[in-house]
Amino acid sequence: MSRTFSCTYENGEQLETYILENELMDYPDILIQLFSGRQEVNAAAEVKKELLDLLPNAVLIGCTTDGEIINGTSSTGTIAIHFTVFEKTRVKSILLETSDFPSGRSLGKKLVKELCKADTKVILLFSTAFGLDALALLAAIHEENKDVTVIGALAGDGGLFKDTYVWSSQGLTSSGIAAVSLNNEHLQIHSFINNNWREIGQPLKITKASGNVVYSIDNKKPMQVFRHYLGDQFIKDLPRSGVEFPFLLQKGGEKRTLFVNKIHKNGAIELSGNVEHGELLIFLYINFPDMVDSSLQNMKKMAKKPVESIFMYNCTVRKSSLFHFAAEEAKMLAEIAPVNGFYSYGQFCSQADNSLQLYGCSAVMIGISESKEVHTPEGIRFFYEMPQDMKSILTLTNLIEASSKDIQELNEYVTTSKQYYKSLFDNNNDIVYSTDLQGRFSSVNQACIETLGYPEEEILGTSALKFLKDEDVARVRMYFYRALKGKVQSYDVDITTRTKDRLSFQIKNIPINVNGETVGIYCIGKNITDQKEIEEKMVQLAYYDSNTGLPNRVKFTEQLKELINRATKKKRKLAVMFIDMDRFKIINDSLGHYPGDQVLKEMAERIRKACPAGTYLGRFAGDKFTLILTKNVEAEEVIKIANAIMVTITRPIIYNRQEFFITASIGICMHPEDGIDAHELLKNADTAMNRSKNQGGNRITLYSNEMNEQAIKRLEMESLLRKAVRNKEFFLCYQPLIDLETGKIYGSEALIRWNHPHLGLVSPANFIPIAEETGLIDEIGTWVLYTACRQNKQWQEMGLGELTISVNVSAYQFQQQRFLEHVKQALRESGLHPSHLHLELTESLMLRNITYSVSVMEELQRLGIKVSIDDFGTGYSSLSYLKSLPIDTLKIDRSFISNLRDTTDIAIVKAIITMGQGLDVKIVAEGVETKEQIELLRELKCHYAQGFYIHHPLTASEFESGLAQKRPVPIL
Asked: DSSP states of 881-906 as a string?
């Protein structure tokens, strides 16, 4: 059986008398609880010494308090002594100082290690209120030993909140703990907690903290938050008011109570436990009716238990604000068993759910008994009659409870709405943000943070204009102010990220209206960068040439129309220029399309560099470029530009270490003189360009009205020519070739003629250029080759001699891949020996692709076919290539022969003949028209000749008849 004796200390003599009268020295195990409401700690220390001297085997603990409970009666400013004697329970005490441990957790672990044994049932624990992390201490004790009931409180100091002390048999400290263990596995214990706090208001987020010091709550100083919610008086009364109004700290599903221990000058607060950034603080209030009801229920339960002593640790707030109830509660408990304890700054007790927490404005109590017998008197009733002055508290509590319920329902609705909004806000793949009335960010979602590349704290408060290009600021500001007036705005804009990337967004500005006033702007931005790139690619594909990057025909025409409208309004001139690469198809056919594309790309760049400012350049089609000149549009200036373009085009171009020469035909027309709309200007510039091409290319032509008539005639001629191919309206004439040394005819040159059923004979000069331009020359040339070979073979079979036949090959025909096959086929079908076939190639053809030309010529020679260079001397710089060309004959151009009276031309002809002798090739003079020319050519040792002086071109029958009759050739 255990018993508790209590008294107040008056003096040493009185204390000794009390111990003797109650025969306390006869008990082997005594627990002394010494509580001092006085601030003279030295006096308590002296009493402690006296007690241990009188009862050397006793175990003592205690602390300073904010009031004492002695046998169910509350007292203040006294020294209370409680002696609990045991028969079967062993008692052990400990004193630990905070300075000896790195943390509250390590201190708690030490306590368990020293006090907890196999039979330990209860630990009574008193802790100083300041300078100790009580939450960490309790957490460590609970983790180390969950089977032992822990109960106790934080020491008080009479409401001063400055210094508190705890002591044990081992000593005294102002920063640490004192504890005793009750060791008896059969000890009966029954603990209760009267903790009736209710949450009120919205949770407040800790936004900056370190340890147990909080620097900001909801991004505001804690003092500002307290002043807003609790008023100036609460701040003035801190830290005492902090005990009266604790916080509930929430982290995930875990909740614990905290108190304000101290205020710093910078507005920060020091709490009774450590906190972390992001944790929530919730205000608490006492539900008085629930507190009363809970207390009465606990008493009824305890009355049915075996209880010999009750230790009660109450809150100082209950003493100051609810003293009547606190006093009545202790009196009612005293009817069960002796009640002793003190008023504290915080209470803790192990709960049925196996948790150990620190409470405020609560009462914790434990009933102990070494006996299993229940000693509560029969018929005891527990009832609390609320005094009149406390009924207002009841009314206020009901009001708070109802209001809190309303607020809770509203908060739940708001929370649900916020969660819906937050889900939409945070999980939206689009950027979502809000701004204040000045356009500063007030909220941003995760997509916005990731897009901009800055931490949220660096974005909030900054202007949204910071992320725009300078040229977009005025436009976006306009949309912003329109939205502030209540109109939703949509627009596209580029945003610059932290990594300097430019992203395109489709933005919608939505006014935020509160009570009819616009308080900010919500913005939703859809990333359209990929979409815009696709659109730009589609535009590029639709309006721009993929090879050169220049505007294509469609885009160029659109631009021309726009510039015409602008020029018409401002009464200005425009010039449209067509540029066509002469015989460019030869490069494509010989080298392939990829090299051809590279050459065109180079030409486009050359033309671009030669164009002045205000020029719009495009690739119209194939090897044809167009440009529009908008500045200094006078005929002389336009021609200067065209000449500059011609010069840059004709510069040699290198591909695979080979040199190529390209010329161009340019046509120019002027607006408004030569046309007033895009279609007319383009048509007329094209007509002028075709005139340049028809005149041999490599020239510039200004449009005139007569050109349209000629262009129409040219189109008609092309149509007739195509019909002529189908209707076989062509025939061949043969111009004799003579040996100047013997005067004999050794062969002929096949010359095509066209006999139209209505037009009659059409000159080759009128249809050959059209045939070359349209590609019909390949089909016509092949027909000429086949026909000439058959005719020459026929003459040989008639016994007219071993005649040779010369056939002209166009540049287009020569570059075709099937050219060699056509030659071989013509020889096979006709039966003509290859040595009797002479193929005449123009000098300019050789220069276009010297490597390809040489390879074809070498193959022709391997077949036994003779190769001639026609119109020699009219090219560019072919003399440098001549020695590498596999040729058999050079034909001197008729322009040199017709002027043989001129000493210069005589010198040129002589040089060509001499060069031919040096290269071991035969020389043929064409266009011989006088006896004098024949004589001079013989004198210069020229090998062969042809011309009107010898004979006009003859039909096959005429040529055949002349040879058969052996008519003389007038060369002597």
From this structure: HHTTS--SEEEE-HHHHTTTTSHHHH
Kindly report each contact of residues 948-955 with a partner whose C-beta sits within 8 Å and lies 24 or more positions away, as own/partner: 950/736, 950/738, 951/735, 951/736, 952/735, 953/733, 953/734, 953/735, 953/751, 953/753, 954/733, 954/734, 954/735, 954/736, 955/731, 955/733, 955/734
pLDDT digits (tens, 9 = 90+) for 254-269: 777 777 877 888 888 8
Residues 141 and 279 grouped into a single domain: no
How big is the CA angle at 888 (ends 886 and 894), to the nearest 5 degrees? Answer: 115
Identify the residue whose tokens are 């360009």. Answer: 689
Q: Look-up: residue for tokens 């075996």?
A: 306
pLDDT digits (tens, 9 = 90+) for 563-589: 999 999 988 999 999 999 887 776 776
Q: Which among 449, 146, 511, 194 is positioned nearest to 347, based on CA atoms?
A: 194
Q: Model pTM?
A: 0.48
Phi, psi of 189 (to 5 degrees): -135, 145
**CA dihedral for 932, 937, 941, 943, sign (positive or negative):** negative
Using alpha carbons only, what angle is made at residue 783 by residues 780 and 789, rounded to the nearest 5 degrees? 140
Tell me how far apart the alpha carbons of residues 463 and 794 are, in angstroms, rounded to a whole number.
95
CA 817 to CA 838: how far, in whole Å? 20
- Dihedral over Cα of 946, 952, 954, 959: its sign: negative
Return the pLDDT at 881.
Answer: 65
Residue recorded with tokens 């509590």: 397
User: Is residue 784 assigned to a domain?
Assistant: yes
Domain limits for position 233:
198-284
* DSSP 3-state of 490: strand
Within 8 A by CB and 6+ apart from 326, the residues are 74, 314, 318, 319, 363
- Asked if residue 35 lies in contact with residue 63, where contact means CB atoms within 8 angstroms, the answer is yes
Q: What CATH number is given to the structural domain containing 907? A: 3.20.20.450
Q: Half-sphere exposure of residue 618, counting CA atoms within 13 Å on the CB side?
A: 24
Beta sheet of 269-271, edge-to-edge order:
254-258, 247-251, 280-286, 197-210, 213-217, 269-271, 260-263
| Chain segment 125-163, per-residue pLDDT in tens | 999 988 888 888 998 999 888 889 999 999 998 878 788
Residue whose C-alpha is closest to residue 125's, from 176, 160, 173: 176
Q: Residues 909, 849: one domain?
A: yes
